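Protein modeling request. Please complete all fields; requests missing the sequence field cannot be processed.
Requester role: graduate student
Desired output: 3D structure, token encoding
Chains: 1
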Amino acid sequence: MRTATVTEQMALLGSRPNPAMVGARFLLAPGRFYENAIIGFEPFDSLKEITDEARSAAGALIEEGASTEKPRTFIFINNRLEGSAPWTIKALIDARREVLRRRLGT
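Delivered output (106 residues):
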């Protein structure tokens, strides 16, 4: 049984039970087995495979959270998503900065 992507889960009715909080866990890319991710990604010190769907979904959740009155957004990234959680998080921060930079026209 395939786990739905975060984007698919976000589209489900009732996926936002708390309007004051947004959150998701990004553990593995769709179709990837846990053991294969460990073998292919160790030592988890660099990005091995970019997962555009996950990054897009995380960006949408960050945007959604930022648009609330009291933003509380929790994005959990696992090393087994792209090879290095810290580098994935940095990429998400950089992407968010770029969105804000474009909005401000700088």
